[in-house]
């Protein structure tokens, strides 16, 4: 008798039926669109405020836009403003950002206005953090609140997955990033049905979020570095060395994180911690220059436009200063994520390698540097590979990055992550 090909293989989980998956499409698409609009709204508001603070206001006062005095003033003022939000606004702008990652907690709705305000102030004021962690937390909380009322039979974790996927798709302008993050998260869990059954609705949300962002703002991560052709042995060696150096550099920040966080926590009050952090960030900006401010995406485009425009020493200073600025901003209480600043650190490191050894192709140095730093900071392999690959539009780079990730992963696996428990100790 012929074997029924529709039956699952021995030991394989049965696939969900199309009828079971179809009802999830509309909620997923709605969540994806809304998550993107929240991200775009906060980003647009922050951009307008940034232009006012860093262009219109200093021009009106006759002060240099990025003079040392103005950078000190703006970063200190940002610390005071965010400190007031954390101190006085209901919900205190959410949990300590040092304890949060891409896996967002579900927050009460009363917390969200303060968290959004603090995030916009950070994005506009110059601290070296990105929008990903707080925006994911806001979108997750909104999705769970509305989903529980519109579709009470759906489990909370389903809304969490949709909101995380939609936001990640919107952040990177593609659903691929969300699929990789969710696949990595599901690796250690028992899932019902097959993997693509679990990815179906989140992928729809991520696609809707990515498409909404693309239609509104047309994002691009391609740095337009000099073209890279077929990789050679020298490129492989360079990628292995630079990725490993990036991982070691990132681990320096990871190991310092609990101590720097503890030092700021001893100040006890947000109106002391955040202004003090702003002053430290002002000193770092004076040392590293204005390119080490903000989340870093616009700034890496400026670096990549002239890969030979700075010396190795200048790239090295920017690398170390940006890493230290991210460490301080995340430790003193500024709300934000650490992925985008890490991309700047890796980019500057890769261009430093190119400046030191001209035979290191800029695309190889940048991709490998970003890969190594992200592996150390996020401990998420697929996301690190994805971000490093999209910076350079070259199929030949993927092979190098996959191989370069191996020694870099050996340097970071089993070690602490750049995320703390509520008691201030590091996760492993």
Structure notes:
The chain is built from 16 helices and no strands. The chain has helices at about 20, 25-60, 70-90, 110-125, 130-150, 155-170, 175-185, 195-215, 235-265, 270-290, 295-305, 310-330, 340-355, 360-380, 380-390, 395-410. The longest helix has about 35 residues, at about 25-60. The model is unreliable at about 1-5 (pLDDT under 50).
Q: Which structural class do you get from the secondary structure elements? A: mainly alpha
N-end to C-end Cα span: 53 Å
Number of β-strand runs: 0
Provide mean pLDDT, rounded.
87
H-E order: HHHHHHHHHHHHHHHH
Q: Count up the helices.
A: 16
Report strand %: under 5%
Percent of residues in helices:
55-70%
Rounded radius of gyration (Å): 22 Å
Main pleated sheet? none
Unreliable stretches, pLDDT < 50, 5 or more residues? 1-6
Global morphology: globular
């Amino acid at each position: 008798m012929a074997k029924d090909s529709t039956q699952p293989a021995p030991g394989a989980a049965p696939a969900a039926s199309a009828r079971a998956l179809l009802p999830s499409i509309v909620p997923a698409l709605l969540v994806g669109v809304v998550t993107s609009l929240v991200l775009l709204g906060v980003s647009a508001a922050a951009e307008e405020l940034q232009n006012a603070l860093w262009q219109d206001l200093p021009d009106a006062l006759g002060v240099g836009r990025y003079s040392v005095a103005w950078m000190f003033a703006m970063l200190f003022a940002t610390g005071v403003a965010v400190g007031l939000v954390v101190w006085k606004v209901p919900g205190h702008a959410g949990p300590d950002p040092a304890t949060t990652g891409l896996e967002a907690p579900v927050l009460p709705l009363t917390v969200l206005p303060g968290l959004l305000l603090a995030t916009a102030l950070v994005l506009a004021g110059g601290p070296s953090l990105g929008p990903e962690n707080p925006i994911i937390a806001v979108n997750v909380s909104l999705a769970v609140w509305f989903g529980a009322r519109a579709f009470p039979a759906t489990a909370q974790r389903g809304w969490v997955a949709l909101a995380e996927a939609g936001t990640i798709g919107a952040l990177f302008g593609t659903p691929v990033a969300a699929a990789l993050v969710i696949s990595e998260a599901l690796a250690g869990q028992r899932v019902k049905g097959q993997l693509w059954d679990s990815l179906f609705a989140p992928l729809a949300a991520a696609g809707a979020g990515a498409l909404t962002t693309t239609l509104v703002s047309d994002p691009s991560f391609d740095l337009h570095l000099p073209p890279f052709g077929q990789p050679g042995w020298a490129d492989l060696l360079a990628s292995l060395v630079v990725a490993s150096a990036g991982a070691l550099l990132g681990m320096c920040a990871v190991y310092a994180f609990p101590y720097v966080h503890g030092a700021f926590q001893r100040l006890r009050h947000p109106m002391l911690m955040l202004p003090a952090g702003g002053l430290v960030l002002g000193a770092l900006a004076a040392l590293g220059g204005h390119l080490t401010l903000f989340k870093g995406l616009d700034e890496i485009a400026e670096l990549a436009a002239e890969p030979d425009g700075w010396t190795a020493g200048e790239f090295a200073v920017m690398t170390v200063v940006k890493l230290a600025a991210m460490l301080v901003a995340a430790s003193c209480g500024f709300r934000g994520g650490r992925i985008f600043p890490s991309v700047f650190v890796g980019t500057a490191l890769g261009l430093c390698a190119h400046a030191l050894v001209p035979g290191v192709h800029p695309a190889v140095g940048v991709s490998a540097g970003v890969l190594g730093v992200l592996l150390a900071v996020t401990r998420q392999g697929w996301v690190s590979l994805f971000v490093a690959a999209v910076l350079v539009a070259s199929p030949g780079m993927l092979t190098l990055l996959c191989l370069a990730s191996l020694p870099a992963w050996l340097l970071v696996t089993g070690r602490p992550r750049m995320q703390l428990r509520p008691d201030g100790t590091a996760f492993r």
